[in-house]
Each structure stands twice: as structure tokens, then as C-alpha cells.
Amino acid sequence: MPQELRVLVAVAETGGFSAAAARLGLTQSAVSHSVRGSEAKLGAVLFERGRSGASPTPAGERAVGHARRILRLYEVMGAEARGAAGGSGRDVVGGVLRIAAFRSAALHLLPPALERLTARHPGIRPEVRVVRELGAGTAGEVAAGRADLGIATLGASQGVPPGLLTGVLVEEAYSLVHPAGHPDPKALPLLDWDENCGSYTRAWWLAQDWIPRATVKAEDDAMVLTMVGRGLGMAIMPELSLREATEAVDITGLGPERPVRHVGYVTTPESAATLAVRALIRELRSEKV
Fold first, then answer.
1. Of 158, 24, 153, 1, residue with least CA distance to 71
2. 142: Cα separation from own chain's centroid
């Protein structure tokens, strides 16, 4: 069974049966036979075959995600079993912990939590990847089996794939950020970035007649903050993004009806039961923002 799952993942990641065979040290016919067997068992076509290689069908994407997650459980099972067999009388938490986070969370929310986590559990080796909150975002990385835990914006328009567990870690208010000392910041153009465009705060924005419809787009929130500091416009940004604010900008509250962003963790039910993920969630929950 594990080998069949490794074949599915290898074909999806390499884009072809020959490349998957080379990665796994198998013959191409063995890879083809394994994929056909998996398709027969599942009753679905998992890959579209063509001259340019093989690409997962929607059913294949789902199957490959489950395959990665199952293979990951095999790894964690071994690590936790070895930790329990160490003879210390307590569980020893160790191994790689894969985390996906959007930029400002990776910069400001994760580091103190990881510092405490690795101090308490020196055997844990965090691997953090920055993933843009566009499309499937960090939650999609968890669903696809590429991350054990994701730090995501919860309640946004793209939503969280079904079957995943979530928990709110931070509720952060949006504020108006504008060039320092500007006499009329609301008259400035609105600066924005792609990851913010799917925000559920849009309904609030549309109800404010002072916010201009036309926007200047930037690559990310750090670029927006820099452009505001250069006097190119104003922006509406959440607290984590404003951790990098300098004296070149002023930050003004938006009143009691201001929009609020919920930042939380996303994980799978099976990962939530593992020692390393549970320990990380504890540290994240104890973080003061």
C-alpha cells in the first residue's frame, strides 16, 4: 500500500510515468501497472495521459492529497514510536514539522512560537514555507498533504476545504495607514495588494463612501507599506502587516465598526492528533499579539 501511494505522488509531482519511475527506481511499466491498479481500486481515472506526460484529474488531485497525508502519517508514526521507546518515561517529540504560512504571519506570528516550541522540544525541526493567500492558499497546502499545519486567514472568500480543522489564533483590526503628517489622507489614492482582494472586509469597504473605487495594486503588504511611506497613497491594513511600519507613516483607527481579520491554524484531523502539531498549536495559542 505505501508503495502504491508513493507512485501516485511521484507521478503527480514529476508530471509523467517515466520521471516517476526514475525518482522511485522502478521501471515505467511498474509505475503504469501501479497507477492502473489504484484506478481500478478507486473506480476513477486519476491521471490524464498525453504526449507531454500525465496530469492529475480532479479525482487524482484528491487521491494524491490523501496519499501524501497517509504517507506523512507513516513517517510521524515511526517518529512518535521511537520517541516513546526512548526509555525516558515520557514522550519525546521530534522530527520534521511542515508549516505553511502567509508572509506577515511567517514574519511576526510564527517565530516566537517556534522559539518556545524548539526550546521545549529540541528534536522538532520546523520547515516553514511562505504561501500566498490566493486561491487555495495555506489551507490548500494542508489539504494537499504538503503541510502539517497552515496559518491562514479564516472566513475569507476562498474558504477552507471540507474536512479540515481550524481554530482562531488572532483577531486583528484593520486600520487606516497613510503618509505621516498628511493633512487629508482620505483624499489619497487607495493602495492594495492581491492577497487582500479576496478579503471578507470588502463589504465594509463598499459601504464607506470615502474609500475610492480605483486602487493601485502592489505585490504584497510590505510593498504597500513602503509605497504609503513614500506618499503614493493610503491603505487599509491589518495589525500583523503594520508590525513593519516606520515613522514615515501614521496609523489611524477606523472606529468601533472597523473590519476585523481572523487569523488561525488549519490542520487535518490526523495531524491534529500528533504530538508535534498539538505542541505547536499550544504555543501559537499562548502567543500575545
1. 1
2. 7
Query: In the prediction, which pLDDT does 131 show?
Result: 94
Closest among 203, 226, 224 to 215, alpha carbons compared:
224
Of 88, 105, 138, the domain-final residue: 88
Give the mean pLDDT per block of 10 residues along the chain (289 residues): 92 94 94 94 93 91 92 83 64 86 94 95 94 89 95 79 92 93 90 72 76 77 93 92 94 89 94 94 83
Which positions ≥6 away from 202 have C-beta within 8 Å?
none
Any idea what the Cα angle at residue 247 is, between residues 246 and 248, rounded to 5°? 90
Which of 178, 219, 175 has its CA nearest to residue 197? 219
Closest CA to 74 of 3, 12, 149, 122: 3
CATH of the domain at 165: 3.40.190.10
Which domain range does residue 212 map to?
171-261
Query: Rounded distance, CA 231 to CA 188, Å?
Result: 9
Reported in sequence order, the residue ranges of the chain that DSSP labels E, i.e. its strands, are: 47-50, 53-56, 94-101, 123-130, 149-154, 165-179, 190-193, 215-218, 235-238, 249-252, 260-267
Looking at this protein, which amino acid is placed at residue 173?
A
Q: From CA 79, how far away is CA 74, in angstroms rounded?
A: 9
Strand partners of residue 100: 129, 150
As given in the structure block, the three cell numbers for residue 154 are 479564516
The Cα 276–Cα 286 span in angstroms is 16
Query: What pTM did the predictor assign?
Result: 0.84
Q: Give the chain's length.
A: 289
Same domain for 22 and 138 = no
Number of folded domains that form the chain: 3
CA 279 from centroid of its chain's CA atoms: 18
